[in-house]
Specification:
With about 280 residues, this protein is mainly β. It contains two helices and 20 strands. It is about 10% helix and about 35% strand. The strands form four sheets. Strands 8, 11, 13, 14, 15, 17, 19 and 20 form an eight-stranded antiparallel β-sheet that branches. It has a six-stranded antiparallel β-sheet with strand order 1-4-3-2-5-6, with no helix packed on it. Strands 7-9-10 form a three-stranded mixed β-sheet, with no helix packed on it. It is globular. The chain starts with a helix and ends in an 8-residue tail after the last strand. Bound molecules: zinc ion. The site of zinc ion has 5 residues, from loops.
């Protein structure tokens, strides 16, 4: 009996995390840092139309098997920037048409953190230069486009542990305002495994000033995921991974207050709430 339960749980988790069928969509949440699913009505082409939002290419998936299938053939799945204001009209362009959509406000909480390494709050000019270089490298990865027809849009959790900081928090480091929290933090012990939440390819790995040891995975059509503060990286660019494959280990490298995984999900070069992709 002792063996039975974990076995059943594992196989169920495997079925849930590998289920990839037409009709899978992330959870829609039309708020800053959320996702809009926009029907590209009127476009009947057999192949997916090219869609664009603020200069970045947007994921387009088949509406077949979704709640929209009687309404449209194609759906744009768009990441909404945290900085977007609800009064702004957001517009996707596709097939020569404009598709406007509106969003609601979301008030994210504030978080105050104390960082012992002062350079991680007020870096010197050389460190700022380093950070800018690293940021350009990361944005390059976030903008990567692989034309996979049906990218995996439901994820398994990449680490076991409580969520210690949600996405979107307004952040103050040593009382100074900084960029909002662009990922989800999962608290886990030093050396615990970090695993791929879905199939994909390793785009880049690096040791970054703020993010520490980092891996960025590509899942196709501008959907990428990033893993930070790792103590060890076990993959290299070009590696093809399946759900549950190990990326490396939990660590406390970069700007941290303790060991944890910072997990970011990016769509059309916009960091969105990873919760929206979780499959249970
Ligand atoms: Zn974080």
């Amino acid at each position: 009996m002792r063996l039975m339960k974990p076995l059943v749980t594992t196989s169920l988790a495997l079925i849930l995390s590998t289920a990839l069928y037409a009709g899978d969509l992330p959870k829609e949440s039309r708020v800053p840092g959320g996702i809009a699913v926009v029907p590209l009505s009127g476009i009947v082409s057999a192949s997916a139309p090219k869609a664009d939002f603020r200069g970045n290419r947007v994921m387009v998936v088949s509406a077949t098997g979704t709640a929209y299938e009687n309404q449209t053939r194609w759906l744009a799945v768009v990441g909404i920037p945290l900085k977007a204001k609800s009064a702004q009209k957001l517009v996707i362009s596709a097939g020569g048409e404009k598709y406007p959509f509106t969003i609601e406000d979301k008030e994210y909480k504030a978080q105050y953190l104390t960082i012992k390494n002062k350079k991680h709050v007020n870096p010197d000019p050389e460190q700022v230069k380093r950070w800018r270089r690293e940021k350009a490298e990361m944005v390059g990865a976030f903008k990567h486009w692989d034309p996979i027809a049906q990218p995996p849009v439901t994820f398994a959790l990449p680490a076991k542990g409580p969520f210690s900081s949600p996405f979107g928090l307004k952040r103050f480091f040593n009382k100074q305002p900084r960029n909002p929290h662009s990922g989800l933090d999962i608290a886990a012990p030093l050396g615990a495994p970090i695993t791929a939440p879905a199939s994909g390819t390793v785009l880049t790995t690096g040791n970054y000033f703020f993010n520490g040891n980092t891996v960025i995975m590509d899942h196709g059509q501008g959907l990428t995921t990033m893993y930070c503060h790792m103590s060890r990286i076990d993959v290299k660019p070009g590696d093809k991974l399946k759900t549950g494959d190990t990326l490396g280990l939990i660590g406390k490298t970069g700007r941290v207050t303790g060991p944890h995984l910072h997990w970011s999900v990016s769509l059309n070069n916009v960091r969105v709430d990873p919760i929206l992709f979780l499959n249970n």
